[in-house]
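explain this:
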Amino acid sequence: MVALVLFGIVASAVAQTVVVSQRARQISENWMRANALAEDRIEAVRAGVIDDPTPDSGIFHRTSTLSAVAGHRRLVRIDVSIKWTDSEDRTLALSTMMRR
């Protein structure tokens, strides 16, 4: 009887651990996907694609801005923001500079 109670406690703990690890995997996957979308946009701008023809991808909403760098007329700053909601609102922002 004691063994059965112990087995039940251990099984419950394992089940909770599996649920938590699956949720953590999903959150990590979303962060990686958001990072890839931001990098893709930066590379598109570097390749000369100024307008963003790519529609939003699933739960992700992408915005990007290009702005001149004060005091450096040949530099442009690229800011990309990816927003999405899973268990909460999340935002990933990447910035870089490039020569015109």
